[in-house]
Design brief:
Blueprint (H helix, E strand, L loop, with lengths): L5 H15 L16 H5 L7 H20 L5 E2 L5 H12 L1 H8 L5 H11 L9 E7 L6 H16 L4 E6 L1
Parallel strand pairs: 2-3
Antiparallel strand pairs: 1-3
Length: 166
């Protein structure tokens, strides 16, 4: 697999994670990306508060997706272990710091950023939505289709769970 897809995947996780929080589209009941979260995260995770935010949202999103998808399928928030480790390392690196520092502060800005990642011909869907196989995760077409599915759901006030099969 090419390594160059990891920053795009990480950016998509951050955007969808932000948009799924209760202050935006309320797919999961967390508030890790709200300004107030730093008040309780920084005393405990003084050097890794951004990583703690990322993993808090990641786990909330993973649980929601797992509830709606069958065991053995992969999705934006549950990928093969090697990819998960690479994303964790990327989040700790300068790439993750840069993406986190550029994170949108509003729902509209996040939707605009997600639109930049999405394919133009995305098909709207509700509920579980097969995108392809996990072997195609590093394909720009696959990543654009996943972004388009989320963009469509967030703009139409619906919930979709794009997944990849193993």
């Amino acid at each position: 697999m090419r390594e160059s897809y990891l920053p795009t995947l990480l950016q998509m996780r951050l955007l969808v994670g932000f948009l799924g929080e209760r202050a935006q589209c309320a797919w999961w009941p967390t508030a890790f990306y709200e300004a107030s979260s730093k008040l309780f995260l920084e005393p405990v995770f003084s050097k890794t508060s951004r990583l703690a935010q990322y993993h808090g949202v990641l786990e909330a999103a993973r649980r929601l997706h797992d509830e709606h998808l069958s065991v053995g399928s992969y999705h934006l928030f549950r990928l093969p272990e090697e990819v998960e480790q690479d994303l964790h390392v990327a989040m700790q690196s300068g790439v993750g710091e840069e993406l986190a520092s550029q994170a949108p502060q509003s729902k509209e800005a996040a939707l605009d950023a997600l639109k930049q990642l999405a394919s133009t011909g995305g098909t709207p869907g509700v509920g579980p939505m097969a995108i392809g196989g996990i072997k195609d995760l590093d394909s720009s077409d696959t990543l654009e289709a996943i972004a388009a599915a989320y963009l469509s759901a967030f703009t139409q006030d619906a919930k979709t769970y794009p997944y990849l099969v193993g």
